[in-house]
Structures are given as structure tokens and as C-alpha cells.
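Colleagues,

Please find the record for the four-part complex below.
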Amino acid sequence: MTEALDVPYRERERSVTMESIGEEHDELLTINIGPHHPATHGVLRLLTTLEGEIVRDVTPIIGYVHTGIEKSCEDQQYWKVIPFVERMDYLSYYFNAMAFCLAVESLLEEEVPARAQWLRVIHLELNRIASHLFWIATGSLDIGAITMLWWGCRDRDLALDLFEMSGGQRFHTRYFQVGGVIEDIPPGFEEMTRKFIKTMYTRIEQYLSLLDRNEIWLQRTKGTGIVPLETLLQLGVTGPLLRAAGHPWDLRKAMPHSGYENFDFTVPVGTVGDNYDRFRVRVEEMRQSLRIVEQALDGLPEGPYITANRKVALPPRHELATSMEALIHHFKLVTEGFRVPAGESYAAVESPRGELGCYVLADGSSKPARVHVRDPSFVNLQALPEMARGHLLADFITCVAMLDPILGGVDR
Amino acid sequence: MPDATGLELIAQRVRESVGDDSVTDTIFYRGRATLDVAPQSVHDVIAYLRDDDQEPWDRLMSLHGVDYLPAEPRLGVHYELLSMERADRFNVRTRVGVEDPRLPTVVDVHPTANFQEREVYDMFGVVFEGHPDLRRILMPEDYEGYPQRRDFPMGGEPVIYTFNEPKLPRWYD
Amino acid sequence: MEVTRTKIDGDSLRVRQLKAQQLLRGELEDADLEREVEQRLLFTKLETAQNWARKNALFPLGFGLACCAIEMITVIGSPRNDLSRFGAEVTRFSPRQADLLILSGRVSVKMAPIIRRLYEQMLEPKWVIAMGACSSSAGMFNNYAVVQGADKFLPVDIYVPGCPPRPEALIYGIMKLQDEIMGDPSMGWRERYRAEGTEEIA
Amino acid sequence: MLKSYLPALVFLLLGIGIGTAFTLANYALGPARRPIGMKREPYESGLPSDVRKSFRFGISFYLIAMLFILFDIEVVFLYPVAMKLEVFGVFALVETVVFVVLLLIALVFVWRRGALEWK
């Protein structure tokens, strides 16, 4: 492995050529804001060419946490793929599982009962809040507000307690199954969620009171990292970045799936498209998610929490003792898993960072032939050089913070 | 999602404007419209669908590669198109053989394809002609082989469970 | 260092304070002085004192790879279970000022030489915690892209199981590391449970 | 005469003593391990660094450094006055006020000339 390092690194990174900067400067400094750096939210390497404090050119180089998840998924049965897919974008794990389940359900033409859909929406929105809380914690840490790290992590723990209560674990709970949800929510879940919602409304006021009238925060975020809307659309950027630039594209409103149409919530849209708008759009999204969870809890329908089709869903444990069919179904599912008829499907979900689509190719066996996840951070990362060229290095770090890339999803 | 007839209409329009042999097949399955396109005319079809068609598909959401190993033109490349006005999705697919996987790039039509084409090149070995900076994006620069092809070994280590491993080393080979 | 605790009630506490005051003012004579000094002083080797100081001032290198990094930041950042109780919550981002490397996340093949370089640039004496299943043994990613266990290219001291391990699990791992720094014989479960025949097959 | 400078001398010796003690303690107390591999290499977020020794920083950094020295070191002069204000009496107070006003004029001049904006 060491000889690979003797090759001078610069020659291998041919893409950073000086032509793009015009005349030759002896003061140009090409450095790596590299894989190990406090401000890159993971192992993202930004090969930046600086002239003094001005960023002249940026080349994101990724792949440092590439785990070959899509290749591993091809070796697992369908219901074993969910833990792999959840670990791609490790801050919004429910959204990965949701996209995969939607894709497989559309292949199976499986109808998910209403209660399962509403439970899924509750967990998706709680996960959006938890993801935005972590973004506001580390994002403001990059800009200098250390208090936000303690506040953000403190409130995020409340949300993770809810996941632990319903799914059994704080992270990657594998709560979503193909065809519904693995377990109904325990009795105390509803009160804890309502208490969480009440505290979160006041906590969001606290964040805004700390940040929104803070002169340093306003000067660092207002007017920095502006990218014209047309460039964003051409670069395929979706999510809060696009909405902050004034384009109200939200998959939950445009192409609602799994019951989003019967909740009323508004889509926050920015005007200028700078970092301050991105900050306000995400904070407002947290409030809207709270409203959605509140409405979902009020109108949670009764009924089964997973599809009754025993070919796909495991039968309940107590039935195994009595009925022979349940035993056979259970045995068939556990050993070989359910078979999906040959075909392809692409399902997209609005994750906290943008459109998260999952493409599944089924070849009739019980293992997917190909699972590809279109990760929003991977596509949004292409907008980073547009934000940074010609601005100060400090604003560049703010842009990375407000872009909120999750490197697990970028590198898959 | 354009239904079966809508798909045929689109295919018809594409054949007229881009070329008769450009569209090889149209598949409508489980509510998903897929247009199979000949490899060399991908760029023209996508440009046509974006600009001159009466129902424009102006956004490219995802570009990903697939390895249909048993089927003959093995490597497939999918273009997930999205129209934000009509909130509708459409899929264009091309099939390329393994011997010379060449495809014209669509970066000039949709700049978002830059990273995604590099990933398809890195994982499947499909060369996109005209791509501004075609290099490996996920694997190390000097990595040989295209990991996500189905004939590429999974790698990793065999997990040893047995207690008599010292007596019968690597019995599973 | 056995520490015996005796119950101090009201008046004997007053007596102790007066005695300490006289000791400081130097008014105690030989017999009293001997006994007082005997009770107050602590004799130890330089080695133990050094380890004790190192144990309680671990500087972790701020090093996040994947999902375990989020749990590590929660351990450092969230007030509920934080690391400042062990004096280890100051994460330094330059290897020159860090002596504990917490490998939080999956170690990919492309990242391994960089981690090796960081490890070599760290301060002596340095320790490595492999946090989570992925860095301990590549967890469920038994494929081409992940190094099968960080101990293939780094000497790892503590393996913390879990995917991701709970914050309390990481803190327990750090407490175990502190025992190891003190050279506590209770480490090494194989000796404690006399578990012959379970050595890893290299 | 030597009497009045003794504290300064002791302070100087103590400073040097503590400084060297800490640097040398590392060799005495630290583990005797030979530095392996890339210990000597410069740290650039985990990658081999290509910054040439001949690299010269831009002129703006020099300007900011000068401004910093100009305005920040003045605080050092205020300390002794603040310590012994009642001994020096009103005269010292007036003098420091004049001193600060002069600095303010300099600051306004620099600010108007635009040296504070980053070019």
C-alpha cells in the first residue's frame, strides 16, 4: 500500500489545472481541506486553490468512505437489504429504508395498510427533525456557535429516545419492513411524542433567539454562497438548497406518497438563496415537521400495522403455535425470503437533504439484482464549487456547513 | 407517469425527430414508462426530450448503471428524467455491450450528470465520450477492475466459524 | 491504591481541621507531626503518577468516518452522557495535540493510508479505540471496499462492539482504556475466564 | 540599584527554567519510542503536503499583521498605568486618554483608507 503513496499526489489529481484561473500567480496555494478536517462533516476532501484568503478553485474529491453497499445489497435477500440501505445516508436512515420499501412494494404491487403508512410518516418526520437538529448543531459549530452543539445534541437525544422506544435502537432501527412496519408503537409512545413536540416548539424559539439576532451569525451567513436558481436546477440540486433559492419543489407536495396528501403543512421557500435562507428554510421545516407529526398522531387510524399478505410479512409469533400455514410461511420467509417478480422500479422520497430515490432491479429470485440509491448529497455536492469560487475562505466553510453533505450517502 | 399510450406517442415523436433507429423498445411495467434507446443516439434523444418536445422533460434526476449479466448487451445505463411542471417521471435506458462500452456524454445537456457519469465509469467501466473530467470518483485512482460488475468477485474475507479450523485449515475451499 | 473511607462526624472533623492548620503553621512537634504527615501524604511511583495523569487527560483526535462518528459527537456534545466527566471531551483536530484515536466508522480501502499517516503523526504515547463493528471487523460489509478490521494496519487497544455502539458503550470502552493505561491486571478476559482454545485464528 | 531589579531577574529566570523544564520533561517522561514513518512529515489533513518552502504569503496578510501589532500591543502600555493609577494621580489619567484618542484617530484614518477590507 505504501508504494501507491510515493507517486506524487498532485500529478494524479490532474483535474486541478491552472488554466481555469487564467494568468499564472506565484501566490496561488493548492491545499487539501482534506479527508480529516473539522469542517468537512465527514471524509470529504476539497482540493482548494487559494489566492491569499480568496478561493479560486475547488475540486471535491470523494470516495474515502466508499463501502460498496450497493454491491453488498446484491448478495442479500430483500428483507436483509434494509439494514444495508439504512447505513448509506446515516443521518436520515428512515428515508433510505422508505425509498427501498416503496420501490419493492411497487414491484410486488403490495398495498400498505393506512396505519402503517401513518406510522411511517410519523417516523419520517421525526427523523427529519433529528437530522436537521444535527445539522444545526454541527453547522453552527463550524461558524463558531459552540452552544448550539450542546443544545442540538441535547434535543436530538429526545428524538432518539422516541426511535429507541418504537424501533428498539437509536440508529438504523430497521423499523420499516416491505409492506408496513415491523412492530406497532408501544403504549407510551404517543404521550412521549406529544411532550417532545411541545418542548421542541420552545427549543426552536431558543435556537432562533440565540442565532437569529446574533450579528456575527447574520454577517457570516447573509449574502454568502449565492448560486443562481437556473444553475442549481441544471446541477440537479434538490431539497432545502433549491427551496432556499426560491423554487418550491418538495416531493411531499408534488408527488405525495404513503399518506402525505392528508396532512396540511406549508413548504418554506427562501428568496435570495444565500446561506441565511438555507438556515431559515431548514429551521422552518423543523416546525412544519412538528405540525405533521401532531396531525398524524391525532388521526392515527386503527388496523393492521403490516400487510396481511403472508407471502411478504412474517406471521405474528403466537400464530406459529397453532396454525400450520403460519409455520410454513414463517419458515419460507426466514430461510429463503420472498420472491419479487422480475422488473425494475424507481421510487423517490423527500429526504432532509433532497430527493432520495431508490432503483431496484428484480430478476425473480429472492435477491435484488441491483439496488442503486440516488443520494441528494452526492448530487448537491456539485453545487459547492459554484458557491465558493471567488469568495473568502471563511464563507466557503459556511457554504459546506449549510450544504450539509452526509458522506455516507455521497460515497455509498 | 405517462401511461402506455403516452409512452407510444413519445416514442413516435422521438423516432420522427431524432431518427428512426434511435428508439429500440418501449416498456411499460408497474406504472413505469421506459424508453429503450440505441447507445449512440442517447445524447440527441435526451436533448430532444429536454428542448423541442411539446411535453418537455427538463430535469435529469438520476443517472445510474446496471449490469444485466445473463442478458446479452450487458451494461445498461438509466436516465431518470423528471418534469417539475407536470410532476411526472420518465426513464430512458440504453444497453451497451462489455467489449466496447462507449456512450456520448449528456453533461452539456444536464450538468448534473458530471459526478454520476464518473460513478458509472468507475463502477461499470462505461466510457462517456466528451466528459470534461472522466476519472474514478469512488475507488482509489489506481484501482484495476470495475467493482460493481456482476462477474467482479465480492471480495472481503471468508468468515471462519468452525472450531476445528486449526486441524482442517480452509476446508471450505 | 487502596483508599479506606472512615465516617467523619461533626466534632472530629473540627479536630482534623485544627490539626491540619497547626501542621501548615508548623506548630506540631515530632510525635504529632509524624502521625499527621503519615496520614496526609501519598507515596507512589513516578510511573503510576504519570499514568494516572495520562489517564485523566485523554485528548481524542476529532476523527469521524461514518455513522459511529455521529454517536461519538453525541458522546462529546450532548450533555446527557458526555466525556467531560473523564477529562476527555476536548477533541483536538490536529494529530500533534491528540493521543487517542477513536476510529468511528467503516475504514475504506481508500482511507486506510490516510489513517495510517495520521496515526504515525500522533503524539506518543497513543492509543486506538476501534469503535463499532465496522472498524473492529468490517461488520456486515464483507466486500472489496472495506478493510476487514482496523487491526490489519493499526495496533488497536480497545474494540467497542455495536453498530453504532450506544454512547454509554463508548464511555465504558474509554473507562476500560483508562484501566489499561493504569496497567490494571483485570484486562484480558481470556485469562480471567480461563478460555483456552478461543484465540483468534490469525 | 541591583536590589530593585531582583524581582525582574527572578521572574526571568523562573520563566526560562519552567520553559526548558517542560520541553526536556518530554524526553525524560515520554516513552522511548523511535519516531516511525511519517512523524516528521507536515500534517495536511492526512495527505502528503506539497506546499513548497518557497511559497510566500500574500501582502494582505502582512498588512493585517501590522495593523494587529499597531493596535493590540498598545494595551500592554495601559496595564502599568491601570495598576498604579492612584499613585500617578490625574496626570496619568489625562495622558492615557490622550494616548487612546491618538490611537482612535489612527484607526479612523486606516479605516477610511480601506486597509481593513480584505483585498
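The beta strands of chain B are 23-29, 32-37, 59-67, 75-83, 88-96, 102-104, 127-129.

Comments are welcome before we finalize the supplementary table.
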